[in-house]
Amino acid sequence: MAELEPHGIHTLAVDVTKLDTIEAAVHTIIEKEGHIDILVNNAGISRSAPLVEQDLQTARKIYDTNVWGLLAMSQTVAPHMMKRRAGTIVHVGSIVGIRPIPWSGIYASSKAAVHAMSDIMRMELMAFNVNVTTVYPGAIKSNIAANSSEEFALKEGSMYEQFKQRIEERLWLSQQPGCTPTDEFARRVVAKVLLPSPPREIYCGRESTLAWVSSFLPNWLVDWVIVRRFKLLA
Fold first, then answer.
1. How much is the pTM?
2. What is the CATH number for 23?
3. Catalytic pick from 107, 136, 160, 203?
4. What SUPFAM superfamilies does its record include (predicted)?
5. DSSP letter string over 40-70?
6. For 170-225, what is each residue's pLDDT tens digit?
């Protein structure tokens, strides 16, 4: 991120799973700038695996980053905004938290938790004039699939060996040709977050609208479509 410096953007290293690094970064910013206007909780990791064979240590790591890291960041920053009665917190969720799909059960459930936390936090912070926005990205160009693929492996003797190729294909699903470029996603989201009254929800990226529409359809119909799309019947 060194190329950001010439634009007047200063970076700080934070591990959202370690409270001391969060507190140190927030303290540095408050000391230097006096306040924080916007917090964007974007840190997230994913792994692909059948849910009943998901390694529990990996599952906890995902929740530590995607859920508890988000909560820790919010708990550290929100009090400063509440005292000023001004600020915006942005939680980056995912369309799979609305419409879960196979082989990403822990990631999808972590994002569903993010959505619930975001809705509750928005209501709880209204009295302090702090905005909370939930972003529901679709297929956005990023490094999340590449990072996830480094640790992809089925457990020894997996009952899902015949689905291994399909699980790997799911891992890269959001990075297929036609996914929304990162800079386009950032521009669209930032423009809405900087509005005087930021929206409660932002749907952005390929298939984000489709996921929203599917949330109104009966589960039997969605199951029928997804089972065939992902070839879940051996």
1. 0.92
2. 3.40.50.720
3. 107
4. NAD(P)-binding Rossmann-fold domains
5. EE-------B-GGG--HHHHHHHHIIIIIHH
6. 877 788 888 899 999 999 999 999 999 999 999 999 889 888 899 899 999 999 99
